[in-house]
Amino acid sequence: DVTPENNIRSLYCYTRDRETEDGSKNSRLLRQQQLIPGIIYGSDPTKNILSIDASSKTLVKTPWDIIQREMDRFTYHNFESRVYDVTLYEHEDDTEGEAHRVTPRNVNFHPFQNKIYCCNYVRYFPGKPIKIPITYSNEEESPAMKRGGFIAPFERYVQCIVDEGVPIPTSVEMDCTGLLLKDVVRMDRIIFPEGVKPSKKINKERFLVGTVFGRRTDVEEDSEDEEV
Which helix (DSSP H) or strand (DSSP E) does residue 71 occupy? Predict the structure, then answer.
């Protein structure tokens, strides 16, 4: 499910018992039941929750297929850039649950089996920075990219502030119009939707999206053109 007005999808998880479902052995047993251990943590001033309070950390377990569904839809890295409304149930018979607005964080995999090992959630509220993926647009308008050039990325995400009531974008676009080989791509090419702006912590002049590269023959041809 998705909340259309703000582009927030829904998840659910269950409370994890501190005595019987915490620790490495108990977590391993949970994974055998297709339940992924994790925690909900972080501050949320809209609910008077402070991260310094021990009660702000809640042990949870999320059905494996719920996480895998979202990662199949958005890929692993982009999954951690989404905002979700997570309903936390006390047990499987609980029909009400408690709502938390979160972003997934620290999704870990088994080093050999490539299976999801852990999935945490950090609370989200309007005004909190969130990293949003950068996608490329108008690639056909770039002389370099039309000839097989590509952008070697330095930053794949940009930390953004999304105003309250504004849909959280799936990505922000970077305009490739006019890009040539060896061009350095900076933040001034990123198109931010209305109500979305880069975090104040970002140095806009030093933020580097990437550099345009291509085949060696393309570079040599460009050099020859310049000499002529």
Answer: helix 64-74
E strands, 42-176, where? 58-63, 84-89, 98-109, 116-123, 130-137, 150-153, 157-162, 172-175
Burial of 62 (0-12, 13-18, 19+ CB in 10 A): buried
- DSSP code for 95: S
Question: What is the spatial distance between Cα 157 and Cα 135, in angstroms, rounded to a whole number?
Answer: 9
* β-pair partners for 38: 60
Taking the chain (228 residues) in runs of 10, the rounded mean pLDDT of each run is 72 94 93 96 92 92 94 85 94 91 90 85 94 96 93 95 92 96 96 95 93 68 49
Note whether 135 and 173 are within 8 A (CB): yes
Torsion angle of the four alpha carbons 157, 159, 164, 168, in this order, in degrees rounded to the nearest 10: 0
**Whole-prediction pTM value?**
0.84
Residue 174's nearest CA partner among 141, 218, 130 is 141
CB 22 within 8 A of CB 39: no
CA 117 to chain centre: 18
124, 102 Cβ separation under 8 angstroms? yes
HSE-up of 13 (CA within 13 Å, CB side)? Answer: 30
